[in-house]
Amino acid sequence: MLPLRPRERKAALREALGGLLSEAEVRAVLARRELLLREARRIVERLGEANVLY
Predict the structure, then answer these.
(1) Among the residues of the chain, which ranges form H helices?
(2) What gap in Å lies between CA 33 and CA 42, rounded to an integer?
(3) CA 52, 30, 35, 24 torsion: positive or negative?
(4) How many structural domains is the chain composed of?
(5) For residue 1, is it within any domain?
(6) Is residue 40 a part of any domain in this protein?
(7) ∠ CA 3-5-10 to the nearest 5 degrees?
(8) Domain span at residue 27?
(9) Inside any domain, residue 37
(10) Weakly modelled stretches of the chain, pLDDT under 70
(11) pLDDT on residue 17
């Protein structure tokens, strides 16, 4: 699991990918991560944790 702080997430992603992505691509991956987490939280709020997570 990636660290919680944004700067640490970015550094961990760069390290894991060994320079395969540009800086803009790293930012895009992290932005998509945030959007996915936001949507998951919204679904959990609407349907309840027990119905979404297992």
Answers:
(1) 6-17, 23-47, 49-52
(2) 14
(3) negative
(4) 1
(5) no
(6) yes
(7) 75
(8) 6-52
(9) yes
(10) 1-4
(11) 86
